[in-house]
Amino acid sequence: MKRLTSLLIVVVVLAGFMAACQPETVEVTRVVEVEKEVEVEREVEVTKIVEVEKEVQVTVEVEKIESTPIPEGVMQINFWNVLGGWRTPILEGLVTDFNLQHPGIAVVNEFKGSYRDLIQAAIQSTAAGEPPHISQIFEAGTQLALDTEIWMPAEDAVAQCGLEVDWDKYLDAPLNYYTIEGKHYSFPWNTSSPIMYYNKDILDAAGLEMPKDPTFEDIEVIGRALVDGGYVEYAFAGLNHSWFYENWIATQGGNLVDQNNSQDGRVTEVLWDSEEAKRTFTWYLQLYKDGLLIDSGIEAWGEVNRIFLSQQAAMMMYSTSAVLKVESDARENGFEANTAYIPAPADVERQGVVIGGASLYVAKGLPQDELCAATEFMLWISATPQTIRFHQSAGYFPSTKQAVDVLEAEGWFSDHPDQQTAIDQLTETKVGPATQGAKFGALLEVRTIIEKQWEQMMADVDAGMSVEDAVEKNLAAAKEASDVAIADYNATIGE
Amino acid sequence: MEIQAKFPHRWLPYLLLLPTILVSVIFLYYPTGQTFILSLQRVAFLGLRKTFVGLENYQRLFTSPDYGRSVVTSLKFSVGVVLIGLSLSLLLAVLANQKLQGARIYRTLLVWPYALSPAVAGLMWLFLFSPTVGLINYVTDTLFGIKPNWLSINLAPLMVMATAIWKNLGYNIVFYLAALQSVPGVLMEAAEIDGANTFQKFWKITLPLLSPTTFFLFTMNLIYSFFSVFGLIDVMTRGGPVDATNILIYNLYQDGFVFFKTGLASAQSIILFVLVIILTLVQFRTGERSVHYGA
Hints:
The complex is a heterodimer of chains A (495) and B (295).
Chain A: H1 2-44, H2 49-67, E1 75-81, H3 88-101, E2 105-111, H4 115-127, E3 134-138, H5 142-148, E4 151-152, H6 154-160, H7 172-177, E5 179-180, E6 183-184, E7 187-192, E8 194-199, H8 200-205, H9 216-228, E9 234-240, H10 242-251, H11 258-262, H12 275-289, E10 293-298, H13 301-309, E11 313-319, H14 323-332, E12 337-340, E13 356-363, H15 368-381, H16 384-394, H17 401-409, H18 412-415, H19 417-427, H20 433-436, H21 443-462, H22 467-492
Parallel strand pairs in A: 1-2, 1-3, 9-10, 9-11
Antiparallel strand pairs in A: 3-13, 4-13, 5-6, 7-13, 8-11, 8-12
Helix pairs in contact in A: 1-14, 2-3, 6-15, 10-12, 12-21, 12-22, 16-17, 21-22
Chain B: H1 12-39, E1 41-44, E2 49-52, H2 56-63, H3 65-96, H4 103-115, H5 118-129, H6 135-144, H7 156-181, H8 185-193, H9 198-228, H10 230-236, H11 248-258, H12 262-290
Antiparallel strand pairs in B: 1-2
Helix pairs in contact in B: 1-12, 3-7, 3-9, 4-7, 5-7, 5-10, 7-9, 9-12, 11-12
């Protein structure tokens, strides 16, 4: 008996230990995948081979530079960003190139974890008298960044340094998002938008085709055919991220908040009870109730990707910044992944998407020479050649219209039809309050609220409530909590 | 008999205490004081702007149904972690204390979970419990054809609790093992001669002799379940779904560092501080009666 028990303990502990080893293997395969992806990119992009090689060389030089201290008389510019993992070498390649071209300036790439961490650290660092020169601030933090009053409008920085920028060279969607009350606050940089991915092999097997711009109804019909026909376990993998709900509302032309979707003044309420919001959640919750939708959990980017790649679901919502990655990961898993526009109701005119990603801000109160060096860097990195390189390696949209034209002429989009879909969806976006994005300081909290309420909606229909009642009840609750959050925020900043 | 140290100079003891006092003041008392002051203010952006609002933050917390729910969730969670955790640790410690071959190896292995960081432990168990790709659901699916959704409102607290208990097992077992080995063999022999069976020996001799350790572990586990499980929750559920695992420390973190409500978070921190003091005092009161020091 004693032996048996001790044997059992050993087995349990060993199992635990083996499980502990598992994440590492996952990490390793991921690294291998990234390497393979670079390989694939090389094969596809013959014309770019020289550039890629240059980048590799440059990366080697980065190490050299980092090991020696910055020489006397060279100005150090801190560039705080959140591009980690496989994107770090890409960014370091760019930064090193800039430094080589600009003797006297040494931009230092500093990884700060998440977007939220970066804002937090920047506030604390500024309070301690050492603001970071350049910060990469995400779109949802725009109003928050403005209210902290520790960054200055990009437009003013450019003017102060006697530089000139043709702002219209930037793509409309990001430029409009980062223009507040007619003023350009930051340099558009790593822009993305939501997009739908689908498993072409599964659809082919069922003899179905995905339109380029599917409707809510299409998803339901295709999804039901796939699941009922036994082609796949779930039709749609949903990522519980408010960004998608905001986009579904915006593409119908609906505003997320009052004040003409934050264009006309400080926001006081969130319109979770709008027709557009109700239609979105009714459609989405019905998919869940019918067993077509699998929810990956709050902001669980990794999980939704896993579900899609393991072919448990035939469609997923994700970001355009991952087009190349998802394509190659899918190939690894033996299927072809394609992209389509985000679904929208059939009876409304599609308005397009609200962007995600981030832009570059410069700190207030810097010495003139440092301010200008920082501004120069931001102009350089968001300029056409750099932004093309960044698009092809890191996956975000190019920042300028010219870059899109160049890529088109080089045949990049015809070689990558999934990128074509992504860029089309962005450039076809109609400029208006809805697609320009709701900017308010409590947005992060409001996102948390709706994500929580979506979980409650699923729990309610699980408990037998009707879809209509669950949507009605939970959107009302979301509105109430969101309005409190906004009132709180406004009180805190004294408005 | 009383032993009193004699110091050659009157100020020497104070000088020797100075480093400790300095460290305590700088790293403990000063921040505590600051937290209290912050809790009376409305703070924008981690302190860039402040306005004095008196007890408003406290009033809001005490009237908030969400905060009340968080208190209940926290208490349930702590009771589960402490009671189940301690019972299981004791059971495993007693088993590992048997004279078997390779006992040392088991004992070493049992401590390992404690050496893992919360982030690693959290990710690992999240992976095991994953409703779609997890090992646990693979087993339940193969054996019984069911795939419970461990991330649902009802099961998520259990999942986090199980992980939290597992994570702290090693710590508890080390202390219990040490205590078990110091149980005098003479007492056991005497009991055996008197005809006591294994259960009686455990209940009447071992358990009372372990009571100082149990009392110590009780306090440590209580603090663990209130504060240290933060990492696990952040990695596994982020307080969800629908606040099902939103214990006080996580609620505080969200308000303070995600939504930048520093004043409100400071008030929560003071409440948490007072709550733990009260619980520890209650324990000392009730504990004194049942704890035996020295054999």
